[in-house]
Amino acid sequence: MAQKNVVVIGAGVAGLTTAFLLSKKPGYKIVVAAKHMPGDYDIEYASPWAGANYMPVSVTGTEAAEWDKNTWGPFEDLARNHPDAGVHFQECEIHNRTKDVGSATADWFAELLSPTPWFKDVVPNFRALPQESLRPGINSATAFTSVCINTAIYLPWLVSQCLKNGVIFKRAVFNHIQEASSSTIHPAGKVDLVVNCTGLMASKLGGVEDKAVFPARGQIVIVRNDAGKMMDISGTDDGDDEACYVMTRAAGGGTILGGSYQKGNWESGVDPNLAVRIMKRAVELCPALTGGRGIEHLDIIRHGVGLRPVRQGGTRIEKERLGDVWVVHNYGAGGAGYQSSYGCAQATVNLIEDALGIRAKL
Ligand SMILES: Cc1cc2nc3c(=O)[nH]c(=O)nc-3n(C[C@H](O)[C@H](O)[C@H](O)COP(=O)(O)OP(=O)(O)OC[C@H]3O[C@@H](n4cnc5c(N)ncnc54)[C@H](O)[C@@H]3O)c2cc1C
Ligand SMILES: *[C@@H]1O[C@H](CO)[C@@H](O)[C@H](O)[C@H]1NC(C)=O
Ligand SMILES: *[C@@H]1O[C@H](CO)[C@@H](O)[C@H](O)[C@H]1NC(C)=O
């Protein structure tokens, strides 16, 4: 069979995971072309800012739950067998306040706050925590073993795996998706298929601008203090678009204190008042951070802001014919780009094979 020439636009977790899975198959020559690459920190590039962990919020029975489910196995394997990927196991506690029922965060977290979520048989050690172990104000809690991903190690690791499999990386900024199939991008001089993994900027890329894509702004503080586990809570007392969570990254990556979920907000600058609220809530949720002392005992590495690429209706994994090239889309994962990454990338690879007539028709 003739070599298939593929251009993946985007080097976030979506583009890199898709290129990685595709590069394991014979017969492809793959170019990843992107404005931002691992190592860059930019408001247009969500992936470096993520915690990141595996805490599914997808609803039982949906495609999204299927993608999340298919992603646990690969991350468990990385945490167990591939320390070079920067992924480790960490215990995870979800704290639940009855007063948060009906709030935006509690709705977003509905599945995570269920006593019987779909993933209870996927992640190890899922259990309810005894009521008497909870601090005042917490009405119930669940716990399980999950993973935390050090994105500063994991994204370059994905690049290295791709390089090992012959993938070519290039800087490029596209004004229109058609430019990705131009003869200057791919060494073969001709492109059979373009994969659209442009995240939030998809909302600006020419071709078809997707008005269903919008940002959910997440502000974080990275500290040297160790949380020892990951913790998340159903809500805060500081308004609907604020959240509270902590997680300690693998391999000296520091502890992420979050956060916020500010829909439609493109502000790249750190809000110092929000930063103080994030730190106050974090030491209350997780006193181990400062040994029960105040936020002045947090040792700050830096503040950060990232924009989750949310898409109304969920991640878009679809193929379409544009002129004489195929385009396969994988964008709009919102706050779940890591925890759905392998499931989404596998679904994308299946569509690539369908489009190119490689997968046997059943
Ligand atoms: C604070 C925060 C915490 C998060 N925590 C988690 C978590 O714990 N778990 C989890 O699963 N997810 C988490 N997320 C979500 C996760 O970060 C995103 O879902 C994921 O990073 C999206 O990846 P992506 O590859 O789609 O987009 P991006 O990482 O934004 O990558 C987009 C790529 O496309 C390129 N690009 C775009 N337009 C063009 C163009 N026109 N020309 C050339 N290149 C272009 C960019 O340069 C970039 O390389 C979090 C996000 C934030 C902000
Ligand atoms: C969290 O609280 C809500 C409201 O009280 C409740 O419906 C839900 O079952 C609780 N979750 C857990 C895990 O106990
Ligand atoms: C590519 O993805 C972006 C989202 O990042 C979307 O807005 C755009 O419509 C897609 N391009 C095409 C040609 O569909």
UniProtKB/TrEMBL annotation:
- PROSITE patterns the UniProt entry points to: DAO
Keywords linked to the UniProt accession: FAD, Flavoprotein, Oxidoreductase, Peroxisome
Name assigned to this protein = D-amino-acid oxidase
Q: Which InterPro entries match?
A: D-amino_acid_oxidase_CS, DAO, FAD-dep_OxRdtase
Q: Which GO terms describe its cellular component?
A: peroxisomal matrix
Q: What is the lineage of its organism?
A: Eukaryota, Fungi, Dikarya, Ascomycota, Pezizomycotina
User: Family assignment?
Assistant: Belongs to the DAMOX/DASOX family.
From its record, what is one biological process in GO terms? Answer: D-amino acid catabolic process
